[in-house]
Amino acid sequence: MSMLNITPSPANLPPSLVVIDDEKAIGDLICDIADTLGYDTNAYTATSEFKSSLTGREDIIFVDLLMPDEDGVEILRYLASEHIDSQVVLISGYDKRVLKSASVLGKALGLNIAGELKKPFTLKEMKSVLNNCLIEQTASPSIHNDFTLQDLELAIQQERVFVQYQPKINLTTGSTYGAEALVRINTPDGKTIPPGQFIELAEKSGHIKDITRIVLTDSIHFCKHLQSIGWDINIAVNVPSVLLTDVRFADEFIEQIELAGIKPSSFTVEITESALAENYAVSLDIVTRLRMRGIQLSIDDFGTGYSTLQQLKNFPFNEMKLDRSFVSDIHDDENKAIILKSIELAHDLGLDVLAEGVESKEIEQELLRNGCDHAQGYFYSRPVSEDIFIQHLQHSPATEHNKVM
Ligand code: C2E
Ligand code: CA
Ligand code: CA
Questions:
Q1: What is the pLDDT of residues 53-87, one digit of tens each?
Q2: Is 196 in the pocket of ligand 1 (CB under 6 A)?
Q3: pTM
Q4: Centroid of ligand 1 to alpha carbon of 11 (angstroms)
Q5: Is position 176 within any domain?
Q6: 274 and 372 in one domain?
């Protein structure tokens, strides 16, 4: 299969939208609406024609999952093999669950799945999907990530890697008992690069060890500072899969904590399910070692990876972090069922549950009603600098638990 010659879309050209759907009327309808929004549009009814027309510069591609000549999954695979990074919207007459699993598959293949449309759809639904695509385009004008390895190396060298802290809240008392350390990079012209733009690069290039070291050192320093001003706050750090295969990592981390004179239980290591799956035996060794020394262990993004119940049973976790994708849409019946059952399962296994991505009072209340223990999200605070985190603590209800003096 040949690679497409992908060149970025010139800034002065109108955005482009392509539809592949064997029902001509659907393709025409989507194009008509997109035309009014200023898109340059094309609709195809046959996949061969669609494939040969692709330039790699399309901004949005609508893919019908049910095609007579080649099914939608094959089209998704084709787009992935050609490294297409256009926003992809899936359309289908199948039920909602099929659409969802195709969407998950598309994401797993590395595609930028921007929406789903179940046939028959209303004009309003169609417009809303297109609007969401537009919002995403303006929010991230360059989907092409232009942060390079050289940028990353310079940032590490010039000490522009820094950490922000996001409060973790006890839902019953409303107090802040912990913080998650989240890494960022400052650019020389004062912009902040979020981790989504460099963690993968750091993992592939091996620099993730340097990054993690910076985050650990900063977190230990901050934890010690908080204790010196009277706050016993648990700091959580994200540990990537590569470090879970490095047997020295656990020892170095514990040594550093002890040198600083802090108790290991003031730290939590957050691990994603997929990280564990990659190297089961070594990870189990490292993770057990960390726990035996008193470090807390959290399973991150729960429900999105490839966790098995076996893993949940065998790894000595203290906390389950319910992924934001379920929490932000808690009113969806399926999400709600997943949240409820996960809480039940976690509690039966002796784990606390933290809900990620809590953005409103309404979601907080729903979580409380369902027995969730902890929460984190923009509703309480975004990730912030050390100074602002301390201000946040001073305004948060104090408990015997987190005040050391
Ligand atoms: P994560 O571990 O799931 O971290 C939570 C992410 O959710 C953070 O994004 C946080 O800013 C965001 N978030 C928190 N509350 C809300 C909310 O209410 N609404 C929304 N929409 N988002 C919320 P951030 O800082 O961009 O980090 C993204 C991911 O990058 C993290 O996901 C984690 O996987 C990775 N990451 C961040 N720092 C580190 C690090 O030091 N080491 C490693 N290996 N990965 C890191
Ligand atoms: Ca995390
Ligand atoms: Ca998470």
A1: 999 889 999 999 888 888 888 999 999 999 999 99
A2: yes
A3: 0.76
A4: 31
A5: yes
A6: yes
